From TrEMBL:
GO terms of biological process kind: defense response
UniProt-listed Pfam families: MmgE_PrpD_N
Family: Belongs to the PrpD family.
Gene Ontology molecular function: any one: aconitate decarboxylase activity
Entry GO terms, CC: mitochondrion
InterPro entries assigned to the protein according to its UniProt record, in alphabetical order: MmgE/PrpD_sf (IPR036148), MmgE/PrpD_sf_1 (IPR042183), MmgE_PrpD (IPR005656), MmgE_PrpD_N (IPR045336)
Domain MmgE/PrpD N-terminal: start-end pairs: 9-152
The species this protein was found in: Formicarius rufipectus
Name of the featured protein: IRG1 decarboxylase
Length: 158
C-alpha cells in the first residue's frame, strides 16, 4: 500500500531483521561494543549513584530475576536489573557515543542481558540471538534519533 505510515514501515523493517543480517563486521563491532560496555559497567558498580539505585531497587522482587553486574549474589527483577546496570554504565560516562549525542550500548545492553537471563532454563537464547537483539536495539535507537528534530538540535544547544 502506498499510504503505509512511517511507523508501520519502521516496525516492518525492525520486525524483518534476523541473524542473517549480521555480517562478520557487524558481529565483530558488536562484540567490541559489548565488551567495552561491560567493562565500563563493572567499573561503574563502585560509584555512589550505582550504590543508591541498587539500595533503592532492593525493595522490588519477582519470580523472574537477573544479575546485577559485579554482584553474583544480588539479583533483581529484569526491569530493575537493567536499570541498575544501565546506571552503572552511564555513571562513568565512558561508554560509547554517537552524533547526535547518545550512548547507544549503555541503554541497550543492560536491557538485553537482563531479559536474556530471565528466560526459563529450557528456552535460553543463543549468543547469536543476543547479538541480534543488541543490534536491533541499536538500530531502533539510531532510527528514532534520525526521526527526532530534538536530536538534530542538540549540537546547536552545546
Amino acid at each position: 500500500f502506498p499510504s503505509q505510515t512511517i511507523t508501520g514501515n519502521f516496525a516492518n523493517v525492525i520486525h524483518g531483521l534476523n541473524a542473517n543480517h549480521l555480517t562478520d563486521q557487524v558481529i565483530q563491532r558488536s562484540k567490541r561494543m559489548i565488551l567495552d560496555t561491560l567493562g565500563v559497567g563493572l567499573l561503574g558498580t563502585s560509584t555512589e549513584v550505582c550504590h543508591k539505585v541498587s539500595q533503592y531497587s532492593k525493595i522490588y522482587s519477582s519470580d523472574l530475576s537477573s544479575t546485577i553486574w559485579g554482584h553474583l549474589d544480588f539479583r533483581l527483577p529484569p526491569l530493575y536489573a537493567a536499570f541498575v546496570n544501565g546506571v552503572a554504565v552511564h555513571s562513568m560516562d565512558f561508554d560509547d557515543t554517537w552524533h547526535p549525542a547518545t550512548h547507544p550500548s549503555g541503554a541497550v545492553l543492560p536491557a538485553v542481558i537482563a531479559l536474556s537471563e530471565a528466560f526459563p532454563q529450557g528456552k535460553k537464547i543463543s549468543g547469536l540471538d543476543l547479538l541480534l537483539a543488541f543490534n536491533v536495539g541499536i538500530e531502533v535507537q539510531g532510527r528514532l534519533l534520525r526521526f527526532s528534530s530534538e536530536a538534530r538540535n542538540i549540537p546547536k544547544r552545546y
